[in-house]
Amino acid sequence: MKKLLAVALVMLLPLASAVLFLGTPPGLSIAVAGPAAASIKSFTVIVSSLGFNGSSGPLYINVSQGDTVQITFIWDDGNLSFDNSHQIRIEGYGPTTQVLNRENPREVVTFVAGQAGLFNIHCIIPCFGMQNMQQGWLAVKAPHGKESTGTTLSIVNAGVNRQGVLGLAVSLKDQLGSPVQGVLVDFYAGTDQGPEQIGSSSTQADGTAFLYYQLPAEGQVNVTCSFPGNGAYGASSASQVIDTGIPTRTTTSAPPFVAGQAYSPDVRLVGSPPPVSDAIAALTLAAVAAVWAVLLFALFSVVRGVARNA
Fold first, then answer.
1. Domain boundaries defined on the chain
2. What sections of the chain are H helices per DSSP?
3. How far is the C-alpha of 80 from the C-alpha of 67, rounded, in Å?
4. How far apart are CA 59 and CA 272, in angstroms?
5. Average pLDDT, the chain
């Protein structure tokens, strides 16, 4: 038995040496166990003055909660005579591209779709055709049958400064009291035509979201803050009536958009000239009359002087 074993070892020794010397024979692969590569859902979006993928209409990127998402944004304004730059943000998730232009025509963002819901994809810097790049949407679908966690939204600070800028701070927490991060909270102001949206802001790591807004008028304003909910978290809202304390007419010349965010014109002011008080109108009329009186007096003096010399 020992002789047979020795013979077998002697016969196998050359074969083993050949394998070690020559390496793995062609056509033979050796599988090494290891973690499987993560599944990535990839999308390409063309960005130009015409909109996303050449259209100003809605663009939807549909994924499931938990997916790893990779979006490649490609700049396509080479037909313009100037360098029309863009910068794209996915609200509620945080990824923001570097500036896209001739020198940097391609940007890739990768993230995990941890929150279910509908999140806006839009250009955030002033550019030609900016209005055509506001209707991109990341639609994150929650797993079927998953229950939403309840939330509580509260207004923790609200005030108006002397320039008529309304500052709001809200806090969003789940039913266990933990902060909810990276979701959008919408802000509304009451008007004669009903609530009008004045902006949106994403919650930070501590669950807070902030908004600064130039008020268009004096008096009281009813502010409503709303989290619409998503597949992971339930909806909640909070309201508060705020006395602006603004004297009459002090905010008529203020810019009607949300400070520090994407330009959001107040629909109550678009196309409406600021009102002019009666006092201002009277002073203006008096100034015009005084100018005409001086001109007429000077003309009369010149004519009289000419007449004397003649």
1. 40-141, 151-259
2. 2-22, 278-309
3. 37
4. 32
5. 74
